[in-house]
Structures are given as C-alpha cells and as structure tokens.
Amino acid sequence: MPRDSKIQKQLLEESRKKHDLIQQNFHDSYRNLTWKVEFKHLVSIEMYDETYNVSMILQALMWLRFIDEYCPNVQYIIKLDDDVVGNILEIIHFLNEHVKAVSLLKSQKQIFCRVIYHRPVSREKKNKWYVRRDELSSEYYSNYCVGMAIIFTGDLPNMLLRAAKKERYFWIDDYFITGILAKKVEAQLVDLKRKIVIYTWEGNEEALVNGDIFFRLFSNMSHGLQLWRQIENSYFIRFLNSSLQLMMSPSHKRF
C-alpha cells in the first residue's frame, strides 16, 4: 500500500468507479523484503537477503489468490503486462477451437505463452539477472514463459498457490510461477511462439488487428487504445460481412 494517503484515496476512487484494482498490504520495491505477516503463508523464504525481490512474487501470488477466491469457475485467465494489448476476440476464438480439438479434459493444466527454452543462468554479478548458485544450482533454466502475456487454464491458480506454500522462493517471478511452480504441478506449457510479439519486427500492428498475432507491446496508453479501437472495428466489419453472407445464402431466402 502507498505511504502517501492522497495516493491511497485516488486508488480507492478509481476502484469505486472502475472496479479494476486488486490491492494488498505490502510496500512495493524492486528488490525489497518489506512485506506483511499475512503473506508469509504464501511462499517459503529460506534465505533473507536484501537482494531478493519478494514484492514481485507477492504481486504474482496476489492475483492468483484473488482468482482462486473470487473467480473459481473461470475457464481461462489472461495475464498481461500494462504495456501489452491483445486481440482478445481472436484469442477467445483460438481457445474455443483448442478445447474442441483436444477435449475439455485434455485442455486442463495448461499455460499458453511464448516459451523460453534452455536459457542459461547468468553468473555475471554485474548482470541485472545475476543468480547465485545457492539460489539456483543448475546452469540452465527449465522451460518457462515470457511474462508479458500468459494464459492460464482456470484450474491452475489453486494448484500453483498450494505448490508455492511448499516451494523455496525464487526472485524472478516469471520463472518462479511458470517454470518452478508449473513444473511442480505438472502443467503443460503451450508455446504460442510468434503469436506473442516481443520485437516490433516480428509482427506489425495490422497483424494484431487481423488476428495473425495475439499480443503486442504498445508505446503509450493512447497508442494502446488506438490499437484496441482498430481491433473492435475490424471485428465489427467481419461480423457484418458474415451476417450479410448468411442472409444472402439460399437457405435463408424467403419463398
């Protein structure tokens, strides 16, 4: 929670108007161990060191706990960074087709994302992602997700939370959730590859609007809103065209 009461009032006002905030009681700092007692049951901290980034893990576990408590029957959860826009309409179509193709049972315990394979662990102390051997002994990470856009099946939040209670904390949150915990609960990583665009040369804005790619970074909020409006317009035009074609088909002609 913010130390500034004015900021807290602004957050409460936005929550009242938009109903779009989840807030818990800890101080957010990039590499900080400041956290409240009520979170200690969520994750096991075995090594206390100021270089650990607990607040990032708490943010991840916080929304997982919210979904588990308040949305236990959802089929999918889409987690996006705040600088990512997605063609949600195309994603919903993709997920529906996926369930049809593999059956509902086989579509459980899955994480859809852009998968990182066999990434070496950095041992360079000057590197932002430097990891000590006592934190992670292996020379390579297990497969895990690029964190900007991830889709979880609805059965996973509870499983991941229960696994977190028994697992030693690791400070890179994307790896902790989609690498360590996902492996613990035997979740399947489904690689969307370049459906998730990390670099601008991998897919332009038109590809996002048309649904050829699912997720893409945007430069600022007005840019993100502009892209979303284009997606809406494209979907509306396609809907109108399909409706007109249906009306013009022989089976719909009146006699």
TrEMBL record:
Q: What is its EC number?
A: 2.4.1.-
Q: Which terms under GO biological process does the entry name?
A: protein O-linked glycosylation
What's the protein here called? Hexosyltransferase
Q: What class of enzyme is it?
A: transferase
InterPro entries noted in UniProt: Glyco_trans_31
Q: Which Pfam families match?
A: Galactosyl_T (PF01762)
Query: Is Membrane one of the keywords?
Result: yes
Principal localisation: Golgi
Molecular functions (GO terms): hexosyltransferase activity
Q: Where in the cell is it found?
A: Golgi apparatus membrane
Recorded GO CC terms? Golgi membrane
The UniProt keyword set, sorted, is: Glycosyltransferase, Golgi apparatus, Membrane, Signal-anchor, Transferase, Transmembrane, Transmembrane helix
| Family per similarity comment | Belongs to the glycosyltransferase 31 family.
Q: Its topology with respect to the membrane? A: Single-pass type II membrane protein
